[in-house]
Design brief:
This protein has four helices and no strands. By secondary structure, it is mostly helical.
């Protein structure tokens, strides 16, 4: 008699859990994971490589420490996935180095001294 009561209680419990599972609302479908939209901006890794080459060339620039600092911030932003911020820092570093190159007179631009 005891085994029939246990069997009946298990059957009732199973049916009630099964009916509750059917009556529960379905979980909302997860939003599909889409790849990031192609940005109109340049890839920060390529831009960073170009600026790195400029830093290597501008070893005598007085703006080199500031350009390196902006470049390193750009690297961190690029690693975080923020291409727009990284490219802004890279452009700041590039501007520091190119403005310095434009300001330095070359041998052809120096005025000749009368003598």
């Amino acid at each position: 008699m005891r085994s029939s009561k246990t069997l009946m209680a298990g059957l009732i419990l199973g049916v009630s859990l099964w009916s509750a599972a059917i009556a529960a609302p379905a979980a909302p479908a997860a939003a599909p994971v889409l790849p990031p939209a192609p940005a109109a901006e340049a890839d920060c890794q390529k831009t960073g490589g170009d600026v790195s080459a400029l830093i290597d060339k501008g070893a005598t620039s007085p703006n080199l420490p500031a350009a390196r600092a902006a470049f390193q911030i750009g690297i961190m932003e690029c690693m975080d996935g923020d291409d727009a911020a990284a490219n802004k820092h890279y452009q700041d570093a590039k501007k520091l180095l190119t403005d310095d190159a434009k300001a330095a007179p070359t041998a052809a631009q120096k005025p000749k001294q009368a003598g």
